[in-house]
Amino acid sequence: MSKDPMQRYAESLEKTIQHNYSYLKEAVEDFKGLCMVVTPEKHTPQDIIVDIRELYKEIRDRLAEIKAIQSLLQGKYRQYYRRDSLREKAIAEYGFYTKNLYSKFEYILLQKQALARKKEGEISKEEERGFPYQWFHSSDHQVTFVRNLRILEDLDYETPSDLGIEERREVLQGKVRSLSLFCFRGEASLINEVYSRVRFREHDLIERYAPEELHGLLTHLREIEPPEVEKVFKRVLENLNASRLKCLHIPIHSQKELEGDLSHTIKKALDAMEEGEIKTIII
What we know:
Number of strands: 5
Shape: globular
Order of helices and strands: HHHHHEHEEHEHE
Distance between the termini: 68 Å
Helix content: 40-55%
């Protein structure tokens, strides 16, 4: 008995998933090998850098195609689709693993660029390690900072936060995405309250930078204007009875905006602020 057209099409979609899965098993190993070649100490040929970026894009494209097909099969063709939980887990792990490898690769390139500029006398000792080092103490936070900026267009999220930003339930492709750096400064007891009670999304960060200072990062997956972010901070601080804290907001759209000694600029802005003031600066 011949199969109906919908069943044949569902089976062709399943074969596409399996084909991409087989490709990923080999491509991820190749990607790992290429990334291992890039170290801070050794010169990296430009063709290796190009190959890493192109292979990463191809891996991300394959993962996106698998995700789209799975969504279609689980919807319109669900009666013909049998989920393979082990394969789905492996595919998810490939995505997570390659993202981490790529973020570390880009981070090493930043280090190499900083060292090259230092040799040429273009940067000070304070700038040598780059702004992510200056904004966060935690090495995990530093790597996440760079990763989020480098792969901003590939990020999505599921876990909601307490911030109440409407974007948390929608990821809009093709829109202007950005990061928001923020700093809360003031009484240690109020800093404790904010740090212990506010829950953030998976791509957002907060760190107890000093007894009277919090540093953080918000990752926006839709276009959002600074006044909207300021309103969010104002509401959060009011809800926690912490409205006496200073709050500085710095929108970031590209790596280029992080060049130079931003720590001095930010410190100067914070020192000039009044208690309870919420301010956005463009750098």
